[in-house]
Amino acid sequence: MPGFQGRPMRSALGGPRVLLRRLREVMAEPVSAQDRLDKIVVLIAANMVAEVCSVYVLRVDGTLELYATEGLNRSAVHLTVMRIDEGLVGTVAREAEPISLSNAQAHPAFSYRPETGEEIYHSFLGVPILRAGNTLGVLVVQNRAHRSYTEEEIEALQTTAMVLAEIIASGELTALALPGAEPAARRPLHLTGSALSEGIGLGHVVLHEPRIEVTKVIADDVPAELDRVDHAVQTLRASIDIMLEDEGVARVGEHREILEAYRMFAHDRGWINRMREAVMTGLTAEGAVERVQSDTRARMLRMTDPYLRERMHDLDDLANRLLRQLTGRAGGPEKMALPDNAIIVARNMSPAALLDYDRTRIRGLVLEEGAATSHLTIVARALNIAAVGHIENIVGLVDAGDPIIVDGVSGEVHVRPPTDVEGVYVEKVRFRAKRLEQYAALRDVPTVTKDGVAIDLHLNAGLLVDLPHIDETGASGIGLFRTELQFMIASAFPRTNEQLKLYRAVLDAADGRPVVFRTLDIGGDKVLPYMRAIEEENPALGWRAIRLGLDRPGLLRSQVRALLRAANGRELRLIFPMVAAVEEFDKARHIVERELTHLRRHGHGLPERVLVGVMLEVPSLLFQLDALFERIDFASVGSNDLVQFLFAADRGNPRVADRFDPLSPPALNALKTIADAAERHGKQVTLCGELASRPLEALALAAIGYRKLSLSPASYGPVKAMFLDLDLGAVSALVKPLLNGEAYIPSLRPHLKAFAETTGLPL
């Protein structure tokens, strides 16, 4: 169209706002998917006074297919296909950035396709079709004239691409595709992360903090939408300022740094101006927030700097906060009724948040973060929920309701799985059920190794739903009952009578078998929702567990009193967590003695016997073992925290959690030191950390002297089956010289694996 040479494009139909309204009308028409796309490209071309408008859709095989065009040869539709590393269209898709050229054919990335007839068009403007930062396709306009497209024109085309993204993501175009060439928006995904909790879960996605679904993107009243953006931003800024001024927020620390980052972003004029500009193109306030954040996310997903990637999460959160302001849901995500077979998907979450859900409906958990020894993972194992972590950008790759499979054994996640993959996993579930039947058959078989050494296996528990596992497995008892879980799922602090009822139920379920109750281990990442959180620089090393109990003796006394009353006429075993010095145990035991005196004075029944011990999980106790074992009745080793503190590696930080192997000589020698001291003093010691729940690690523990282990219910069968086939003398003879030898060995893991393979030991 020579008459347009050298002039900025001007709208033939009244600008982008009119275009968006016309698009809304087309989207509402009862026409086929192809007819809808054909009408859309005609509208865009006419509105932007372009001779060509084309829509390319990213396919499951990673190529881009021409789905609709106005101006190019119509016969090329669904025939023109290019790789994502090919041509200008491929560059736009790959980089997720607009490309504007006055002479496209001179660009080194230009790829000529004769079937399209585009050789006569020189100027080129391509924008990515984005949703949640993920590229779904490319929208292109072209003109014969050598001309430059304005910023306003680029912005208008990006806004239009947002509408196309919703069409592609809806799955409407799938019917137009050949098998194996469907749009990538709904493609099956095979993702690999870290296995956190064993099991296989088949179900549908439930987003823990669901994105606000923007249902109306086209504005009716642009000035009103601008006012809504301004008001929402002002409210957001004020809420962040209030949080920062709260006396409960520490003056320094990670939490404050996050809020300060939020405040910085919320006051960034560039961010606000981009949203206002998006509204000016005809979007609603919500649509503008989503458009700007999707563009930002697309750029940041392609960055390798971990700091900048972390800021992406901050911006995601800020955008969600703003959307909640705009939609009237500023109080946070709504609790929804879970579907059957729910798979919870989250960036990360607290143990309390997981316990908020109806656990009978949860089949799996998928996290962007997560660590094998985090408290969230421990709770997931206790609930027998398959869990996988370290799945990058999983929140942006799925939609609520998507079919999903979680393999907590291999660490694999299948999103929208093909029928054949689903069939394979259905068989896997059946096979696991068969294995569980085989383990169940071992229920009444004593746990004795092939060379006659008895191993006492107990269960870790913390909820009433755990109690039936005692009878199901034939366990010797409960080696660790985490009392804090009751407090974490309650909406208010449980009264003494409520605690009393739970503790009695636990002892009743044990039916005479020993139960070890751990007093409240709160703090760190276990925050009670009804208690004000204390912000600390290093919460794992801070005010938690016994430290909190001794500083707030009323809290500890009320729990001890409930435990003593619940054990009326029965044995009570009680341990204190996070003890770092002998005098802390002395103070805690004194509280128990005071409560016993109180109960006697008021005529209450007393336990038949009270045994008091400590959790050995702070390395300082390794140098106080003789003095400690003279005072305590028994001990339990918390290997999760002990290894964390031993290596100064935060178990909740995925960057360092797996950096040090618990089967390395330093960790095993520390654990052996405890076992040897217990034997010298004639005291029982149980290892109740997650090490005991993995057959290979349980093998190592037995080799260094542990004869009592407490493990998760799901691990009971595999660990027991391993011990029944084990020659303990042989593995002990292997381990001893490796631990005491002069040669440096980074880990005993390969040696133990080789032993298991050679002897046919089931792991």
SSE order and pairing:
Elements: H1 16-28, H2 33-47, E1 52-58, E2 63-70, E3 81-83, H3 87-95, E4 99-101, E5 123-131, E6 134-143, H4 151-169, E7 189-192, E8 194-197, E9 200-207, H5 222-245, H6 254-266, H7 269-280, H8 285-301, H9 306-327, E10 342-346, H10 351-355, E11 362-367, H11 375-382, E12 386-389, H12 394-397, E13 403-407, E14 412-415, H13 419-440, E15 456-461, H14 468-473, E16 478-482, H15 484-489, H16 496-510, E17 515-518, H17 545-551, H18 553-566, E18 571-576, H19 582-601, E19 609-616, H20 625-631, E20 634-637, H21 639-647, H22 665-681, E21 684-687, H23 695-703, E22 708-711, H24 713-724, H25 728-740, H26 749-759
Helix pairs in contact: 1-2, 1-4, 5-6, 5-7, 5-9, 6-9, 7-8, 8-9, 16-18, 17-18, 18-19, 20-22, 23-24, 23-25, 23-26
